[in-house]
Structures are given as C-alpha cells and as structure tokens.
Write a structure and sequence with these properties.
single chain, Aminopeptidase, 4 helices, 29% helix
C-alpha cells in the first residue's frame, strides 16, 4: 500500500462489537457476543486495518504461545476488498510469526476457497495428503 493510502494498521485486538461486525461484513460466519467476549482476550496477536478511524479489516493468531499457533479471522469488509488489505494483514501476521514463534512451533490455518492463494504468498502450504484439517460438527 502506498503512503497516500487512506488505510492505517494497528496492532491490537478488536472490541467484541468490531469483531462481530468485521466477521459478518466480510462474509465469515457470525459469532455470539458470549463467544467473542470469551475468545478475544486469548488472542496472542491481532492486527486491524482502519479506514478513517473505522476498522475495515482484521486478523488474529491464537494458540498456546509455544507449540501451536493458528491464524484465524482474516477478514476485510466487502467494500474494501481488492485493495491489498488481506496482504497487509498477512504481512503483519508473518512478521509476528517470524519474531515470536519458536522454530518447532506449528502454525496452521484453514483456507476457505481461493484464500489459499493469499496464504501461499506468505509461506503456507497445503498439508494434505499427509494430514487433513478436520472440525467438530455439533449435532443439531
């Protein structure tokens, strides 16, 4: 992003309200206020992209701080997509990984759709067929 860009980057965890709005506004699934309030304080690293003081993008790293780290919540509001903000978010996340994750630390993420192309630019590679990501699905 150029110096004349209207976007700024802050390295802080979003508020519950901002987090919920960014997830839904970017096309990710919604999270309840309770879930967000419990989860956000456990963030190891977070980045937000602001436009005129309003958060329009975010990304987080969660984990145990030593062995396992997961990149989550990469989100950019639909009106701001295509501006290189996902790359900016991932660039900050990669800086954190390089500076703070032990050599034996395992950093993972789940790539939805073509997001894998973005993540590949930052050194992430598919784990299949050696391993396959799985998620617990609660009975309805």
């Amino acid at each position: 992003m150029s110096q004349s860009t209207p976007y700024t980057c802050v390295l802080e965890t979003p508020s519950v309200e901002t987090y919920q709005a960014l997830r839904v506004g970017s096309g990710l699934s919604s999270k309840t206020e309770e879930a967000a309030a419990r989860g956000l304080p456990n963030t190891l690293f977070a980045v937000q992209i602001l436009h005129e003081s309003r958060a329009v993008g975010m990304g987080r790293i969660i984990g145990d701080g030593g062995c396992f780290f997961q990149v989550v919540d990469i989100a950019v509001l639909k009106a701001h997509q295509g501006q290189g903000l996902g790359k900016r978010i991932m660039g900050e996340i990669r800086k954190y990984i390089d500076a703070h994750v032990p050599v034996s630390g395992y950093v993972s993420l789940i790539a939805d759709g073509q997001a894998q192309d973005l993540y590949a630019q930052f050194g992430f590679v598919p784990t299949a067929p050696k391993s396959v990501g799985m998620a617990y699905k609660r009975p309805q």
